[in-house]
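Next comes one such specimen:
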Amino acid sequence: MEIVQDILENIEPSKAAGIDNLNGKFLRDDAKAIALPITQLGNLSIKYSSYPSACKIAKLKPIFKKGSKTDPKNYRPISLLPLISKVIEKVIHDQTKKYLDDHEIIFNYQSGFRENHSTDFVLSFLNDKILKGFDKGLYTGMVLIDLQKAFDTIDHEILLQKMFFLGFSKSVINWFKCYLSNRTFLVNINDKVSNPGSLTCGVPQGSILGPLLFLLYVNDMQQAVQSNLLLYADDSCIFYQDKNVKVIEEQLTKDFSNLCDWFVDNKLSIHLGEDKTKSILFGSKHKLKSAEKLHLKYHDIEIKQHSNVCYLGCILNESLSGDPMGLNVIKKINARLRFLYRNTKILSSSLRRMLLNSLIQPNFDYASLSWFPNLTEKVRKKIQTAQNKCIRFCLQLENKAHIGLNELKSINWLNTSDRYKQICCSSVFKYFNKRSPSFMSEIFKASQQGTIYTRQSYLKLEQPLMKTSKGQNALSFQASREWNKLPKDIKEVKNINTFKHKVKEFYFHQLELQAQMGF
């Protein structure tokens, strides 16, 4: 009962009601009174491997996106399930997740819907692999795969079979079978409700268990390929490294064909046309000049090679230049800054700062470990100029006012280079404190003196040997260099926010010392 009450007391009051009209505020305010009957309902559900029919009805509300309001394609359906069903789901979700974690079942390179995983980690890992390849004279061929409505086309029988092979008991599988079967939905528009429709496949939209079930469904995709496979929910890519482009082409063709067969067997559809599924060949500018194009095909359909691709919101260039992403970041920042200037008269000083932190700073930060070190000096200066504009806006300074240490401290921002270093150190902090994916151990390695593993060695990272400037832009090189410079007392901090604060103070102090020495 305590678990259910805790879930109820932490429900957002603003959570919309499902078909039962019980909203988040009602459940939260009456948590103590309703915790026991909901607990009993959940226990009976588990005991008899049965899920309440009333909890399987979804209320769909169409939300307008853009374009013509008369075109149904311009609406996004929001699925609202009864909140009581989500309480039961939360309990089952946590127990299922514990089983998966205890037995290390989920694919190591799957980062979607997983604690301590993020797109930043995936992009950092991929970027590090490619740059290390550059340093060894390797090309990296990559195929980005676009699935069509993957969550909505999952076959329930195939999912339950996979759960059986993953060791779930018969009673648990029967519970999930009941949970998935006989689901219906009603479309709600302007207080008018449609007749019910049936849902015969897919995971329930808006559910707690849906994302976890999807991870189970695609978990064996890894068995179809020999190339490196990265997954972020339904965003997937394969990549392969070699000195010979033909070898890469042959391996990617074979693996992509195997993946397509896997999609067919699992009743998933891949977008092959409209430039949705695409390829790219990474290499140094010098090597790319003499490199052959990748000719990848699936039956008669050619997978087009691009010089730039967007993966998980980050623009990746074939020579891994950070400029395309950097220029895109500048464009976004300038557009948002123009919007803020148009409304400057109604913004107080504190509101300006809050808006900069929420609307502007995330653009500087997102995936910066992947693109910032690969910027040319010209674009790096433009990035700093964009930040200076933001600081002038916040502090209400003249257009050409100098931005120095005092101005940076006034807004409590590091300059863009030091901010990048802070993010580098934060990624190492998360690695040491087990707040990052296990695959980050392929990037970071604690320094060990001989065979003795000491606290002192724990506080340092091995810095890999890199022969080229591109190789030295890899996170494994950059982060180890910056981390090893930090004082011991900062490294020993256990709270991430305290750590970031202390690192910021450290870099501000470094700037003060440079100013005193006349640099």
